Structures are given as structure tokens and as C-alpha cells.
Amino acid sequence: LFIPSGGLYGCPLAMTDGAAFVLRKKFSDPEFKSKFGNSDIEKAYHQLISRDPKDFITSGQWMTEKRGGSDVSGATDTVAVPLDVAKDTYSLHGYKWFTSAT
Question: Are strands 89-93 and 96-100 parallel, antiparallel or unpaired?
Fold first, then answer.
């Protein structure tokens, strides 16, 4: 569905929906929930799904691109190299950086 304000309205809501979907799936895992429940991540999830304009936040997505566009499903050589497994931190190595709906 095309809307003239897609880049200013539709795109940020699509990014927000994607982030909320992933977090909802992660919080259904008891191990993830026990580690990150009552954290800033859980607070962000509730803000992503809030219908209260005072609490609602939008989400962005960051990715790398080799040939343009935002398809990273296998068209790139980007890898995430673990920096600190205990802290679950990574360093991304790839080509062009792209950010959306921030």
C-alpha cells in the first residue's frame, strides 16, 4: 500500500512493528525473560506497543548493504563478530551502513 507520507509515517511504524514482533518472540523464551525481564529492553517493548502517545516510541533499523536497498537476507558479506560473549556484544563488519526510521 503506497501512502505519500510513507517515509515519515508508514516506514517508522513498520520498523516499530518489526522490533515489537522480535521482542515479543524473545520474551516468550523463559531464559530470555529471566535475563532481561524488568530491564530497559522490556520497558522499550512496552513503549513500542503502547497506544498512549505519551509513552509510545518508534523504532529504527540499522543494517549494512553491499549493493543498495535494504535486503540483507543473504546479499551481503556482513558478519557480527563477538566482542564479549558474557555481555552479548558484537562488532559488525561489512560494507555500506544504512539506518532507517530513527
Answer: unpaired
- Residue 19's CB is within 10 A of a number of other CB atoms, namely 20
The maximal CA–CA distance of the chain, rounded, in angstroms, is 45
Q: What is the pLDDT of residues 77-95, one digit of tens each?
A: 677 899 998 888 888 787 6
d(CA 7, CA 20): 19
34 Cβ neighbours under 8 A, 6+ residues apart: none
d(CA 99, CA 65): 10
Cβ contact 53:99 at 8 Å? no
Does the pLDDT value for residue 20 go beyond 60? yes
Determine if residue 23 is left, alpha or beta; phi over 0 gives left, psi from -120 to 50 gives alpha, anything else beta: alpha
